[in-house]
């Protein structure tokens, strides 16, 4: 969100960076990647022009890394939290997303040149990269999957220092109950791919989740672009407005996720998106003056922002620890197809009739509802099924051991 994007380059780099995560330490990956992205951003500012910066080490590299970091950061967080905390964490992540989104406007007013924006948006990466390197503990799920008993016990001891309810099981018990010797073996990247391809159900989940990511990112991007023109003659306020309206979404979404469950919530927000897009189609001719269009746009932005956040919460809980980053990484990589399409779907109007692209988005919302049907619910039950990616999911063993 901080930088202009070249999504075709993002798709290539996202896959590489996201797949590094499963095989390496989550915390180390995050810290080193943030420092690396700061270096790339600094090199970009030395380019003679913005266009000459893009093919070398410019914004597409930085944005691709930002996508992968977002995924690994979310994955690491949910692997250290019990399932009943995932919904509220989505609110924290969403609020942080909005703050970063809205911070661009004052930055652009203070230093409107692209070099200044590139530098200002890269400085936090260096600062937090260094802080994370020395302070962020490793993911408890990742440690368990790798069979690192001393590190798991150290994690438990640290958690017990501040926990009201102490953890009574030890590291050896957790590892023995949740991982076989085969699970703890270090596998090559190609071996992980082969194991993933052999598991038809996991591949089905990846395919269905990819549809959700593509459509939701496409709708979210298109509505964000359209939102900059909501406030006439002031694109800066319009940009902030498109971010602020999401706060309501992130405040309400955790309630739905916990009370209704993940799967029903995903279906409901997409159905709301379908209805609101139809409303935009019928009110678009009055977009310049009709309050009704603004209202249905707000509802549509609410639904797609909710759906996009559900991709993080629901998508991460479906997959087991050893293949979670890889599976979610595939979904995020493919979501760039939606980001690319969002810039051009509106061009369909020139070949058909005004507002046709809104009907396309509405149809895609129904497609997402259908894609959700084969996916399992993760909020109110523990799926006892094991797959070739292996051990019980982090949701299962954290609930089981009360971590």
UniProtKB/TrEMBL annotation:
<feature type="transmembrane region" description="Helical">
    <location>
        <begin position="294"/>
        <end position="314"/>
    </location>
</feature>
<keyword id="KW-0812">Transmembrane</keyword>
<dbReference type="GO" id="GO:0016020">
    <property type="term" value="C:membrane"/>
</dbReference>
<feature type="transmembrane region" description="Helical">
    <location>
        <begin position="237"/>
        <end position="257"/>
    </location>
</feature>
<dbReference type="InterPro" id="IPR005828">
    <property type="entry name" value="MFS_sugar_transport-like"/>
</dbReference>
<feature type="transmembrane region" description="Helical">
    <location>
        <begin position="201"/>
        <end position="225"/>
    </location>
</feature>
<keyword id="KW-0472">Membrane</keyword>
<feature type="transmembrane region" description="Helical">
    <location>
        <begin position="88"/>
        <end position="111"/>
    </location>
</feature>
<dbReference type="InterPro" id="IPR036259">
    <property type="entry name" value="MFS_trans_sf"/>
</dbReference>
<protein>
    <recommendedName>
        <fullName>Major facilitator superfamily (MFS) profile domain-containing protein</fullName>
    </recommendedName>
</protein>
<dbReference type="Pfam" id="PF00083">
    <property type="entry name" value="Sugar_tr"/>
</dbReference>
<feature type="transmembrane region" description="Helical">
    <location>
        <begin position="123"/>
        <end position="145"/>
    </location>
</feature>
<feature type="transmembrane region" description="Helical">
    <location>
        <begin position="326"/>
        <end position="344"/>
    </location>
</feature>
<keyword id="KW-1133">Transmembrane helix</keyword>
<feature type="transmembrane region" description="Helical">
    <location>
        <begin position="264"/>
        <end position="282"/>
    </location>
</feature>
<dbReference type="GO" id="GO:0022857">
    <property type="term" value="F:transmembrane transporter activity"/>
</dbReference>
<feature type="transmembrane region" description="Helical">
    <location>
        <begin position="356"/>
        <end position="376"/>
    </location>
</feature>
């Amino acid at each position: 969100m901080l930088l202009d994007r070249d999504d075709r380059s993002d798709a290539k780099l996202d896959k590489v960076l996201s797949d590094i995560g499963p095989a390496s330490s989550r915390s180390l990956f995050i810290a080193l990647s943030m420092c690396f992205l700061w270096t790339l951003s600094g090199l970009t500012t030395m380019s003679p022009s913005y266009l000459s910066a893009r093919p070398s080490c410019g914004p597409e590299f930085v944005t691709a890394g930002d996508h992968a970091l977002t995924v690994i950061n979310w994955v690491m967080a949910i692997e250290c939290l019990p399932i009943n905390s995932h919904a509220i964490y989505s609110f924290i992540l969403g609020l942080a997303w909005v703050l970063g989104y809205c911070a661009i406007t004052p930055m652009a007013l203070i230093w409107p040149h692209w070099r200044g924006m590139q530098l200002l948006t890269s400085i936090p990466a260096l600062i937090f990269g260094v802080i994370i390197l020395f302070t962020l503990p490793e993911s408890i799920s990742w440690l368990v999957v790798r069979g690192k008993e001393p590190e798991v016990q150290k994690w438990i001891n640290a958690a017990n220092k501040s926990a009201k309810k102490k953890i009574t099981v030890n590291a050896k018990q957790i590892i023995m109950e949740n991982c076989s010797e085969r699970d703890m073996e270090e596998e090559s990247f190609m071996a992980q791919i082969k194991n993933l391809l052999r598991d038809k159900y996991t591949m089905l989940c990846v395919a269905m989740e990819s549809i959700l990511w593509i459509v939701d990112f496409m709708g979210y991007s298109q509505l964000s672009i359209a939102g900059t023109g909501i406030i006439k003659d002031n694109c800066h306020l319009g940009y902030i407005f498109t971010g602020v309206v999401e706060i309501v979404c992130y405040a309400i979404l955790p309630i739905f996720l916990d009370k209704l469950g993940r799967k029903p919530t995903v279906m409901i927000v997409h159905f709301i998106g379908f209805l609101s897009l139809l409303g935009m189609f019928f009110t678009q001719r009055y977009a310049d003056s009709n309050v009704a269009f603004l209202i249905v746009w707000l509802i549509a932005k609410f639904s797609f922002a909710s759906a996009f956040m559900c991709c993080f919460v629901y998508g991460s809980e479906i997959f087991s620890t050893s293949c979670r980053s890889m599976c979610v990484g595939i979904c995020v990589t493919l979501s760039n197809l939606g980001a690319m399409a969002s810039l051009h779907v509106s061009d369909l109007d020139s070949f058909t009739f005004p507002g046709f692209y809104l009907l396309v988005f509405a149809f895609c919302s129904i497609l997402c509802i259908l894609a959700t049907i084969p996916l399992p619910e993760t909020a109110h039950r523990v799926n006892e099924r094991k797959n070739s990616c292996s051990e019980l999911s982090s949701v299962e063993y954290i609930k089981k051991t009360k971590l």
